[in-house]
Every structure is written in C-alpha cells, then in structure tokens.
Design goal:
Bound molecules: pantoate
CATH class of the largest domain: Alpha Beta
CATH superfamily of the largest domain: HUPs
Shape: globular
Number of helices: 10
Radius of gyration: 19 Å
Number of strands: 9
C-alpha cells in the first residue's frame, strides 16, 4: 500500500490507474480504524479495481467544545490494518494540504434542510464541515465510488444530496452498521467509555429495537419517542434525541408509512453516542 501525503502525488497515482482503465473506490475516514472501517474497504473493493482510503481528522466538523484535540489518532496501527486489507493507497494529508487558505476564511459547503434537524440541530456547523471536507476529498481522489457507513445515517444522506446536487460523478455506496456481540454499534468513540458505561451503552441498541417493536404494535410515534427518551434518561444517558423519522429524515406523516428509521443520540459521561435502526412500519 502506498502512503500518500500530497494532492499532487495522489493525482499522479490515480491518473496512472485511470490510464489503465481502472475504477477507483474511496473510503474516507478519520482514522482509529476498527472492523467497521475495514468492512468499508472490503465493500469498496467489490465496486472497484483500486481502493484509496483517507485518514484526516477534519477540524471543521468539530464544534468548539467537542473532542477534536482528544480524538484518537493511531496512524501506525491504521496503516498496518489497511495494508492487511489490501488497500491500494492511503491519503494522509496535513491540515495545510486540505485547507491551504486556513479553515476560517475558506470556501464553505452547506446542504440546507437536512442539516437543520437531529445531529445538525445539536452540533451546529458539523455537517457543513463534513460536506466541505468530503467535497474536497472527492475533488482530490476523483473516485468512481465512495463508501459511507449507515451508522452515520444523517451524514450519508447529507453526502448523497451534496453529490447529486453538485454533480459529483461518484456512486455513493452505503455500508451496513457493524455491531459488537452485544449490539453496540462499532465506533472509535466507544473507547472513551469508562467502567460500567460500556455495559450501559448497549441500552442504545436495545432502545432502538424497543422503538421498532412498539411501532410494529401500532403505538403512536410521539408516545414511543417519549418512552424511549425516558428509558434512556433512567439508564443514565443525557438524551439529545430519540426519534422516529422517514428514511429521508423528514417526519413520518402517516402511521403506516414504510421505510422508517429510529435514531438516537445520547451522552454517557463524556461520550456522545449515535445509532439508528431502519425498519418497515408493518
Ligand atoms: O465519518 C467520518 O469518519 C467523517 O465524518 C468523514 C466522512 C471521514 C469526513 O471527515
């Protein structure tokens, strides 16, 4: 696997592959890779001849009081893991390479509507930062296909809208959420969990299943959401949201609507966890 640090070097490599008629798959990450990320690389491989991954902890998607400084950075084990998965190239850019004019006065990206709800409401500016860095990465890598996990469902939708509207010639491929044996969705932030918090964290997935099952019994969505929030609070979470929405993330209007999604974001101590579960209304 080639480790590439500059856009010029990346362009050279990608155009060489393109010249040979190869299709390029892309897996953007913030590093601290786990089995969930490696599954994205494997999925990218199924859709392409060469796989490029990137590791960049993007400062513009973190709020002022968020975990940018302490976000786990483990480049050595990440490089070894990607090489083991036969990733072909790793883009490891510096902040200056990504933002040559700095992160403040630079070109912004905003996807309206979908970024105003759920995580967008609780993490102002977060999705602008995600859209901004993903647009830059797409321009740099120029992939044919890019893989994003369903665990960050709202992020996936923001990127889908952005790619469509900006006519990026990239196929966006959603990847299923990988879970630990007890249902906890894999996430780099799970390692922040201290002591009993790791066990308590499984309650998020249990509550998502509860929301799905209550909906299958025909209970009203507002009642299910209130009950879910109460259960999470009783278990020790500080809840940002526990909601049921249509899969386009707008509110479900009719009780028999198909393609629904239960979504939770909640804090346990210093750790903010998100997860979601897709289901049919019945
Ligand atoms: O999901 C992530 O790891 C990040 O939000 C992404 C897509 C790599 C952009 O920084």
């Amino acid at each position: 696997m080639k480790t590439i640090r500059t856009i010029a070097e990346l362009r050279r490599q990608v155009s060489e592959w393109r010249g040979q008629g190869m299709r390029i798959g892309f897996v953007p990450t913030m590093g601290n890779l786990h089995a969930g990320h490696f599954a994205l690389v494997e999925l990218a491989r199924q859709h392409s001849d060469r796989v490029v991954a990137s590791i960049f902890v993007n400062p513009t998607q973190f709020g002022p009081n968020e975990d940018y400084a302490r976000y786990p950075r483990t480049p050595d084990s990440d490089i070894a893991g990607l090489a083991d998965k036969n990733c072909d190239a790793l883009l490891l850019p510096s902040v200056d390479e990504m933002y040559p004019f700095g992160t403040v006065g630079c070109v912004q990206m905003h996807v309206p509507g979908i970024t105003d709800v759920l995580d967008g409401a609780h993490r102002p500016g977060h999705f602008n930062g995600v859209a901004q860095v993903v647009a830059r990465l797409f321009n740099m890598v120029q992939p044919d296909a890019a893989v994003f996990g369903r665990k960050d469902y709202q992020q996936l939708q923001v990127i889908r809208y952005m790619a469509t509207e900006m006519s990026f010639p990239v196929q966006i491929i959603p990847a299923p959420t990988l879970r630990e044996f007890d249902g906890l969705a894999m996430s780099s932030r799970n390692q922040y969990l201290q002591g009993d918090e790791r066990q308590t964290a499984t309650f998020i997935y249990q509550t998502l299943c509860f929301m799905r099952d209550q909906r299958a019994l025909g209970l009203p969505i507002a009642m299910i959401e209130a009950e879910a929030e109460q259960r999470l609070t009783m278990a020790g979470f500080s809840v940002d949201y526990a909601e049921i929405r249509r899969s386009d993330l707008l509110r479900a209007k009719s009780p028999d609507e198909r393609g629904l999604l239960a979504l939770i974001a909640a804090r346990l101590g210093r750790t903010r966890l998100i997860d979601n579960l897709e289901f049919d209304a019945g």
